[in-house]
Amino acid sequence: MKFDPTLYLITDDGYLEGRNWLEAVENAIKGGVTVVQYRSKGRGKTAREMYEELKALRELTRRYGVPLIVNDRVDLALAVDADGVHLGQDDLPVEVARKVLGEDKIIGLSTHSLEEVEKANDLPVDYVAFGSVFRTPTKEKPVVVGVELLREAKKRSKKPLVAIGGIMPYNAPEVIKAGADGVAVISAILGFSDTYKAAESMKRAIERTRRELKLLGLLP
Amino acid sequence: MKFDPTLYLITDDGYLEGRNWLEAVENAIKGGVTVVQYRSKGRGKTAREMYEELKALRELTRRYGVPLIVNDRVDLALAVDADGVHLGQDDLPVEVARKVLGEDKIIGLSTHSLEEVEKANDLPVDYVAFGSVFRTPTKEKPVVVGVELLREAKKRSKKPLVAIGGIMPYNAPEVIKAGADGVAVISAILGFSDTYKAAESMKRAIERTRRELKLLGLLP
Prior knowledge:
homodimer; alpha/beta; TIM Barrel; 9 helices
């Protein structure tokens, strides 16, 4: 599965309750989402519930040719044959996850400092997420790293770098100009009832910026 | 790894906080525990913390030749090369877990009714747990099945059956007489500061009952 991190959607439970969540995700994919990460945090869902949700998401993402990444739970990723996992610094060590998952799965790692980004260069991870770039409603106490640190992180990283945290269409250009290979969002898409339009706005903001950078010779 | 369910210890977090938990488990093994299940429920431990605890437990159980079973988390079981997993009715479906784990790992399944016991006969599980046989302090609202239903469950089960729930040295004999192949305990061992003695009392109660049953020709 081709991994294009351009517009990386994280399916936080809080934004999906009380609506047809699968349809919300499908519309976001139609609007331009290139990767979907399933994340169910602290909502007390059973493994069986998460497995059932993931099965539906697996079918959907396969239909659209979009990679499916599972947050934290390596077993659920294996159970539904997801394309990979995303791990935080408090999850299973990536070396261990790599051993369990094998070479073909995507492994992403959350990083919040230059030190963690540089450490990830030597780890068996396929991409890093770096943030929170801005303040965000989905984390109570985010480490806000800012755009300048993001720029530095991109310079030091040997891995594709996905920016995360408070990214919206109006500030996505800064993030792309700072070198991010993609942006990961929750509220910028799932915070809206029309997830198709929300995804499309993000995608356009990113693509417009990339075109500018190309014209300036700053992107290949 | 030989799986002898005689005295099956579940390491519930609540009973292990504020003490040298690894030593408590080691003493319980010395006292006669034949299987250890790692269970960390709703205490908000990170996967990394559970992984680190499990690594220590893996080393310990290997040293004593005692199988290590991981509750729920198939990924953690794979991560530390545990001998198997124990799944509840709300966890990953056992068929899925079997596919992920392969043929060599032990899979146990919690059951609470004759229907679930009979269903398990056709599932790829190596043993079933049946209970709660008695009232127990470790579950808020246990389904108390009682000794008579346990006897019936054993008759209908094609799998080794471990009785669970409120079993102590004084009522273990009833449970063994009802046909249980072993007893699973938390508080009967971890509720005591001297886990060696606590395990030894349970083991003795079980063995004494088995000798009686053999003398009566009721056990091979």
